[in-house]
Amino acid sequence: MRTFKLAAIAAGLALLGLPGSGSAHHSFAMYDQAHPLVLRGEIQGVQWTNPHVVVRFLGAKASGGEVQPWVLELTSPGNLNRIGWSRQSLKPGDKVELEISPLRDGQRGGALKRATLLDTGQTLTANWLKPGG
Question: 77, 74, 97: which is closest to 86 by C-alpha?
């Protein structure tokens, strides 16, 4: 009986030491939330997968500039579903205006906060970042 109790305690402690899904996530600090960018262009692809939906986009800053590829991140598919998004919300070929929190390191990427479909005017919000980051 004593051996069983020790084994149960050891197993419980081992489980407590396992990393949770949250530990695999990066910090919100990688995004510059104080200096959002507005981009205009075309959706190239959407990966509707966990832990984050990824949008590949070809466009330029709305203020002008060279058309370049961007990789943008959203929250999980489940969180997006809860706020009204679906797998079909953004599709390759959609012409859009996007508001993003760009990466602080200057790479062409960031967190997608808002998408407006230029053909219909529909706006999808995805402001999932923590405030003050």
Answer: 77
The residues that bridge with 112 in the sheet, in sequence order, are 100
If one counts every other C-beta atom within 10 angstroms of the C-beta of residue 11, the result is: 10
Q: Give the length of the chain.
A: 133
26-125 is a CATH 2.40.50.1010 domain: yes
% of the chain residues with pLDDT over 70: 75
Backbone angles phi, psi at 49, to 5 degrees: -135, 160
**b/e for 43-72, b at 16 or more Cβ within 10 A?**
bbebebeeebbebebebeeeeeeeeeebbb
pTM above 0.70, yes or no: yes
Q: Express as a percent the part of the chain with pLDDT over 90.
A: 68
Residues 6+ away with beta carbon under 8 Å from 132: 33
Q: Tell me the sheet residues that pair with 109.
A: 71
Tokens 């305690």, located at residue: 9
